[in-house]
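Action item from last week, closing it out:
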Amino acid sequence: MRLIDNFLSQSPGKVFAFLILLAIPAFFINLGLLPLFADEPTRANVALEMILSENYSVPTIGAEFYYNKPPVYNWVLAVAYQACGNFSEFVTRLPAIIPLFLFAATIYISVNYFLKDKRIALVSAMLSMLNGRMLIYDSMLGHIDIFYSWLTFISFMCIFYFYQKKQWFLLFFSSYIITAITFLCKGMPSIVFQGITIIAFLLYTKNFSKLFGWKHILSGIFCLLIIALYFYNYSLYNPNLEGYLETIWDQSSQRTAASVGFWKSIKHILAFPFEYIGHLFPASLLLLFCLHGRFLKTIWLNPFLKFCTIIFLANSVVYWLSPETRPRYLLMLFPLLFIVWSHAYYTYRESLPGVTRAFNIIIIALAIAVTVAIPVALFAGMEQYVRFLLPKVILVFCLSGFFAFLIIRLRDTKLFAFLALLLVVRLGFSWFVLPHRLQHDEGTYYRSASQEMGRIAGKNSFYFYQYHPEVQNIPFHDKLIFYIQRERMKQVKFTEIDTLSGYYLTFDRDLKNPGARLLKTYNSNLKLYKIE
C-alpha cells in the first residue's frame, strides 16, 4: 500500500488521465435515455428549426421569432445534429457533456500552470465534474450553462495569464472577444461577468486607470462590433430589434430581488451560502481545511489564489442578491472555490490533524455506505428495465469496494481514491437510476404521444392552436413541439385561427370550426384535430 500511495502521490497527471477515462462511461452511458426536459426542448427546437428553415440568423420556435437567447449555442447544437446525422436526446446533450470534459481539462491545465501543483490541479478539476450538483443533475442535461461557463472560465484565466505577462492589450482583447461570444450565447449575464471581473481586477491590482486607456476601450469596441454585426444581420430578416433586446434584458432582470419581493429576498440572502454548500457536497467537505488560522493570509500572499477569491466574491454578490438564482448560473464560479479549497487541503492537512482525521472518517463512512447500498438494486424490481442487472451490480459493487478499500488503507492519496469512488457512483446512477426514472417519468408518455402526432400528420401542415401557456408550462409545450417536428422533419406553426386545412394540436381548448374532426385526446387535455 505504501508503494501504491507513493506512486499516486508522484503521478497526479496519470491519475487525472485515469479518472477522465473512467468518467467517459460514467457520464456517457444512458446519456440519451430520458426524454428532453427543463430547458432542453427549447434549445433543441431552435437548432432544429434553423436546420429545417435553413436560416441560421434568426432563432424561431413554431416558426415564430424566439427572443430569449441569441443563437451561438444553437449553432453548436445544429452542428452536432448535422455531424451526427440525427436529432436524438444523446446528440442534444453532447454540446453540454463534451464541454464538461473540456472544462475539467482547462481547470487542470490552468491550475497546474499557475500553482505548479498537479495534485491541486487534479482535485479542483475533478471536483468541477463530481460536486453534487454536477454529479447527478447538470451533467445529464443539454443546457447551455456548462458550455457557457467553460468559455467564461477561460476568460478569467486569460485575464490572469496576460496580467502576469504584462500584456494589457491581450488581457482586454481576449476577454472581450470571449465576452462577445458568450453574449451571443446567453445575453446580458456576459456583460455583467465581464464588467464586474474587469473592475474588481483593476481595483485590487491598483490599475483602475487602465479602464480608461485605449487598450481597454478598443477591446470593448471590438466586442460591441461583433455583437452589433450579429444584430445587423438579424435585422435583415426581422427589424424588431427593440423587442429582441428588451426580451434579452428582461430574461436577465427577472431573477432579481425587485421581481420577487422583500421577504423572499431576505430569506434567499440568509440561506444562500448554506444552500450552495449543500449543492457542492462532497466538494464542500474541503471547507474544513479553510479553518486554519493562516488560511486568509496564505490566499492573500498567493497572486493566483487571491485572484480566484476576488473574482468569485465579486461575481457571486449578484447571485447572492438575486432570489431566483439557479445553481447552474454559477458553474463558472465554482471551480474558483474548488481551487482555493484544494489548496487549503494540501497546505493544512498536516497541521490540522484533528480536521484531517474527521475528514478521513467522513469519506470512509461515505465509501462504506455507498458500497453497502449497491446490492439493494437487486431487490428493487429493476430487472424489468435494467438489462444484465446482476453483472452490472457485481461490477459496480466490486469497483466501489475496491476504491473504498483504497480510501481506508491509503495514507496520502485517500482523496484520489474518493474521486474515483464518486465516478463509480455516477456509473451506478447512469445504469440504475436513469432507467428507473425513464419508467416513472411522464415525459416518456408525452414523447410517444408527440411522435405519434407527427406520424399521423406526416408532411401535412401542422398547427399549435392559440399557443399561450404560462411561463412554467413553456418547457412542456416546447417538448411537444420538438418531438412533433423531429418526427415530421417539418416545422410546426403557431396559429390563432382554425380555418386552415391541416392538423391542429390544442392543449386547453377545442377548435371552434365545426368542420374540425377530433382524432385523439391525450393526457393533460391535449387534443389532435384535423381540418380538411
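Closing note: The mean pLDDT is 93.
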